[in-house]
Design brief:
Blueprint: E1 2-6, H1 11-22, E2 29-33, H2 43-46, E3 54-56, E4 62-63, H3 66-77, H4 87-116, H5 124-143, H6 153-168, H7 173-176, H8 180-190, H9 193-196
Parallel strand pairs: 1-2
Antiparallel strand pairs: 1-3, 3-4
Bound molecules: glutathione.
Length: 200
């Protein structure tokens, strides 16, 4: 049995859970909740960085971060749908996934700026820096949207980033990038695990 240590709120954990579903691993793993802010939570022994998600394999080995977990699961159970096997196609999908992941990273940093700083400490220059990444990233995504095709990893990563922005409301991407609205609807219809892993 695989153990995925995560929280229901983590967009990176959601990405891994969606991938596990695509790979047909629903019955092969259990979830172990983690609180990254609790110094006594076991996550800090599993991953010294204290970040989620982390996977504990059947052999008891810890695997992190989400990109390495997905690489591991895909190598073990994948058939090329998620990450193509051809080297050029593989690099392309991983690059698009990295683009979507970078958008998610910037969305997370915007949330952390609000969560970990007092209002008077908030740094607008830093927030604008992150919003620049989010908007440039989403613009680039819209220009290559046909390549974000479910169930490839680029599409899964983008869907989780958009879902995170829907939840935390860092940006109203539905108004700024309306072409992504039908794209996400189609993704959700093709990949049922996306709705099933929605943050509470
Ligand atoms: N690159 C990492 C990012 C993971 C990450 O930042 N997770 C957040 C939760 S969404 C976290 O653990 N934050 C706690 C911390 O940074 O201490 C991955 O892909 O897994």
């Amino acid at each position: 049995m695989l153990t995925l240590v995560t929280s229901e709120a983590s967009p990176y954990g959601r990405k891994v859970r969606v991938v596990m579903d695509i790979l047909g691993l629903q019955s092969k793993f259990k979830l172990q909740p983690a609180n990254t802010l609790d110094p006594d939570d076991p996550i800090r022994d599993i991953n010294p960085l204290g970040k989620i998600p982390a996977l504990i394999t059947e052999a008891g080995t810890a695997v992190f971060d989400s990109r390495v977990i997905i690489d591991y699961l895909d190598a073990q159970y994948g058939d090329g749908q998620l990450i193509p096997r051809d080297p050029a196609a593989r690099a392309r999908i991983l690059t698009l996934a990295a683009l979507a992941e970078g958008i998610n990273d910037a969305l997370l940093l915007v949330v952390y700026e609000g969560r970990f700083r007092e209002p008077e400490q908030k740094c607008q220059v830093w927030l604008d820096h992150q919003y620049g990444k989010i908007r440039r990233g989403l613009t680039a995504v819209t220009e290559q949207l046909d390549e974000f095709e479910a169930p490839n990893l680029a599409a899964v990563t983008l869907a989780c980033a958009l879902g995170y922005a829907d939840w935390r409301k860092q940006i109203d991407w539905r108004v700024e990038f309306p072409v992504l609205v039908p794209w996400l609807d189609e993704f959700a219809a093709a990949v049922p695990a996306f709705e099933q892993t929605k943050a509470p």
